[in-house]
Design brief:
393 residues; Aspartate Aminotransferase, domain 1; Aspartate Aminotransferase, domain 2; 2 domains; seven-stranded mixed β-sheet; three-stranded antiparallel β-sheet; 12 strands; 42% helix; 13% strand; binds pyridoxal-5'-phosphate
Length: 393
């Protein structure tokens, strides 16, 4: 059976060019990038080349790129690093952080951990399209606000947030601003100068690189307490022997993403539109969850009335179509997606939704197979769904 992968927001395949670039560093180029000898210097050169490649993709100076173990670490390092970097005696009350209700768990649960430490956190709600209103962020600002963190692109529904506007108001008030750009980098243009961010998280495995490596952009002058303690790696910002092969992979993926960004984005948007139009035409009682005006080109989140998203994902998998109910980090959870309920969906509707996320290697033929399989599977599941029968009697 041919298998079609429509879960590129969970992870992407490693691009062949990336695997090729990494290969030498898994073999004879094994040196420790901190060693002074030839082996070490070869690894160091590779790490510094990757730093330039990543920096170029987001229009940052290479010295402001810190390599990490991935998006989760970058987000944690940003959130805890800023909070721990501010001295409490400069504030009159408990430190305060602003975020949104639809952040990825890497930020959301970090914010909840801050609350357990006595730090105040405002979780700003989003519109039914999943967009945060900058004026609501502005209203949440207090004299003790030290950090605003708002994601650039949502992993479940693909909406893009008005990060430029929010960073401007943070800058005017000298509040550090972090954005989780893990789902945006490689899909939409990301320019740290244009966005005006102080910190930005990205992850290699969402842009056709390897798993377990990412980066945190840290604007010069940002006060950041290291999240981990150890050696003097990464200019004292992130201790630990560098994952040289992974970093080389991230660099190669970044360079490729820069070259292919425009082409990938327009091709994926066309495929996404074909998939969306096809589902809406062939299946009744469905809704698309996103902001049609401002979203990633590859993501489609759809509610299919009367059936469980989990059952649909499993039934589609049996027919060779791989997708998900939302965040891979939440799979197996019986709770409805907090992102979808934050948009105002009922728990039942949130549980009846799936995410289809396209990637560089998907073709029109893949979309057409999905459009053949999805209506059949939905019809079959609805035929045995008491909930659907009652609602549509
Ligand atoms: N932030 C967002 C928006 C994500 O989608 C993900 C991964 O799903 C992460 C952070 C975490 O990245 P990583 O898997 O590299 O830890």
């Amino acid at each position: 059976m041919a298998r079609i992968y429509l879960d590129n927001n969970a992870t992407t395949p490693v691009a062949p060019e990336v695997a090729e670039a990494m290969r030498p560093y898994l073999a004879e180029g094994f040196g420790n990038a901190s060693s002074v000898h030839w082996f070490g210097q070869r690894a160091r050169e590779a790490v510094e080349k990757a730093r330039e490649q990543v920096a170029r993709l987001i229009n940052a100076p290479p010295a402001e790129i810190v390599f990490t173990s991935g998006g989760t670490e970058s987000d944690n390092a940003a959130v805890f690093g800023v909070v721990d970097g501010v001295r409490p005696r400069t504030l009159s009350g408990p430190k305060h952080v602003i975020t949104t209700s639809i952040e990825h768990p890497a930020v959301l649960y970090s914010a909840r951990a801050l609350e357990r430490r006595g730090i105040h956190v405002s979780f700003v709600p989003v519109s039914p399209a999943g967009v945060v209103d900058p004026s609501e962020i502005e209203s949440a600002v207090r004299p003790e606000t030290i950090l605003i963190t708002v994601m650039l692109a949502n992993n479940e529904i693909g909406t893009l947030q008005p990060v430029e506007e929010i960073s401007r108001l943070a800058q005017e008030r000298q509040i550090a601003f972090h954005t989780d750009a893990v789902q945006a980098v490689g899909k939409v243009p990301v320019d740290v100068e244009k966005l005006g961010v102080d910190l930005l998280a990205l992850s290699a495995h969402k842009l056709y690189g390897p798993k377990g490596v990412g980066a945190l952009y840290v604007r010069k002058g940002t006060r950041l307490e290291p999240f981990m303690h150890g050696g003097h790696h990464e200019r004292d910002r992130r201790p630990g022997t560098e994952n040289v092969a992974g970093i080389v992979g991230l660099g190669a993926a970044a360079e490729l993403a820069q070259r292919l960004l425009a082409e990938d984005a327009s091709r994926l948007a066309a495929l996404r539109d074909r998939l969306e139009a096809g589902i809406l035409a062939r299946v009744e009682n469905v809704r698309v969850n996103s902001n049609p005006a401002h979203r990633q080109p590859n993501t489609l989140n759809v509610t299919f009335d009367g059936i469980k998203g989990e059952s649909l994902v499993m039934a589609l998998d049996l027919e060779g179509v791989a997708c998900s109910t939302g965040s891979a980090c939440a799979s197996g959870s019986i709770e409805p997606s907090y992102v979808l309920t934050a948009l105002g969906l009922s728990a039942d509707d949130a549980r009846s939704s799936i995410r289809l996320s396209l990637g560089r290697y998907n073709t029109e033929a893949d979309v057409d197979v999905a459009l053949d399989v999805i209506p059949r599977v939905v019809e079959r599941l609805r035929a045995i769904s008491p909930r659907y029968a009652t609602a549509n009697a």
